[in-house]
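To: structure subgroup
Subject: Chain for Friday's discussion

All,

I'm putting the inputs and outputs inline so they're searchable in the archive.
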Amino acid sequence: MNMFHRKKKEKVETVEKKKRKWFRISKLTILIILMDILAIDALIVINNDEFKAFWIPTAMTTMSHKYLAYTLYSEETVNKIMSENYIEQTTEEINLDEIVIGTSTEKTHYSNKYEQELFTRDPGNEVYKTIRIIEPRYKGWLIGIYDPSDVELAVSSRLGKAGQSVNTLVKNNNGLVGLNGGGFEDLDGWGNGSIPYGAIIKNGEKIWYHSGGDGGLIGFTNEHKMYLTTKSPEEAIADGMMDAVEFGPFLIVNGKTAKIHGDGGWGVAPRSIIAQRKDGVVLFLIIEGRLPGYSTGASMNDVIDVLLRYKAYNAANLDGGASSTMSIEGKLWNRPSAGAEYGGRTVSNAWIVTNKQGKPAQAPDKNNYK
């Protein structure tokens, strides 16, 4: 290679080296700029009032992830947001005389499309109706149970030692449908449903009590009327309470909704709700959540809106989050935020639907729903 070509090659290599160096510097510069933009965006987001009102209550209502609120915000900010987001429950005593069972189950005229949907039976099923709930931010399922005498509480056979999945509780008690019930000790998110919080009443007897119950007693009387009360278990039993768990808050009492300040302090999450109409029809509502791209979850205002569509007259919140689990005909029906791979999280108890009258109860086909 002559001198001319060697110098030309060296010049080309030098130019290429400078290009590569500039490209590396450019990539690094772009990366730094992008990181700065993301950091600025993050600062804008976490200082946004709407984000604070979403993030803090959502974190604070979990048993094991409260630290997420304090990771981004000071204790003073957390306390301020929580003081602005709370639920003001009605102090009115529930009026059981307003519940007249069986007055609307054979309706032919409906007050709205949701009521018509509820009373239009699924093919071959006279016991319950399965309804898909789809909203822009969340998805879920509503079960309407026509005869409230078919609703009862199922309790883990290993109460105090271990919980059982809702599927198992339904199968072990010859049920058709199940919805998780009250809360339980859940240290660091590893609770197995063994130690329920508060009181449990089964067949008119108090079978369990453990401190930590939040809310009031949620259950049904010997007349199959939903009874929501802050009375002691003994007083509730004297009033006719047959089955009950302790949780809350009460969302609707005598047709009057709780007053929700902000998002109620419960954030957006998976929800489990039990309710009853004035005609005695019982509603099981479950909202799926914490599933990005599918369903974020619902606030208390959201679930109240759904319940009012179907004319719930009394309603209460049950344990939510990863515990929110629904079983239909031996199958895990909803998409829980955790534990789907082993049939749903183990819990202490569940509200189940039986078929005491032996009516037709053909299982729904999930492929018929979106």
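Points worth raising on Friday:
The helical segments are 3-46, 49-60, 67-72, 75-84, 113-119, 166-172, 233-238, 300-309.
The chain has two domains: 3-84, 89-368.

D.
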